[in-house]
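Kindly draft a sequence, keeping tokens residue-aligned:
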Amino acid sequence: MTNREMIKKGILAYGREHRAVVAVYLTAAVLFYLVAGLYGYGESMKHMTYALFLVLVFGAAAGIAGCIRYIRHLGELLDAVQREGEQGEHLPPAYTMSEQCYQELIWKMEQERRMFLEEYDEKKKDMADYYTMWIHQIKTPIAALRLLLQEEDSCQSGQKLEELFKIEQYAGMALHYARLDSMSGDLLLKSCDICRIVRQVVKQYSVLFIGSRLSFSMEPFVCRGVTDEKWLSFVIGQLLSNSLKYTHEGWICIYGADEKGRRTDGEAVFLVIEDTGIGIQKSDLPRIFERGFTGYNGRLDKKSTGIGLYLCRQILDRLGHTIEVHSKMGEGTKVTVGFRQDPQG
């Protein structure tokens, strides 16, 4: 709001709030003049008129001074509203007794709000700590079960290892979701070889690739970016998991792209994961990064949680990376991740 707009609104508000006082003042002045005129003649009537004129001038001056003070106070209140943090700390001194009562009420409400937020943060921290502890504990029986399955020689051992891997990935998703709010304290940003990170994640998902019987290819490219290897690995894993889940036949391809989005085997700034899966409905694309949104495919699959892509977007935003998804129903999906470049090359 500009100063001119604030002054205009202040004058109108002051007039509305004091119109009764102005009306009474003018009515009293006119009545005084009329009553005095009934008994005054000649020079004395001139004196009455002059006295009434002075009363009106002083009244107008007092009204203008009060209006200026009102507008200044209004500006201070609007400034307090626009500031961040607890509003009670920025409130100017009370202008009236009723305003003082309102300010005391605001202070009490902010104290209650502060206590509620502290209690909520404490409960949230306890819940996150519990989930973290549970996830770390569940990893032990998962690892033991994997060793037993690897020793088992049967035609179903591969399928069992595949399902066990999915359980481990779901546990990892829960852990990253629990840590998302405190992610900044867990970051280790440094210049990384993106291609190497992708190869490591693909190796981890090899059991799913083998079981899917899809054609898979990863073209060599060169890309370095400032990132956190652990969090980025989780994101790439989620994107590969989605491709595997919704691609029933055809292929999945990973490659690098330059600044213009063209496929390259040299310097790349984008990582592209492309598949020939079932695709995403056009109406669902604007909402795929919303928490809990499953869309048309999720309703068909009945197993989608709507958390995977939400986590990917939140993590990449915090890492300073970008993500775009292009897809057509029945044709496939292409996910493009862009990286902050290493300033040292």
Remarks:
- DSSP finds ten helices and eight strands in the chain.
- The longest helix spans residues 97-151.
- The longest strand covers residues 251-257.
- The mean pLDDT is 84.
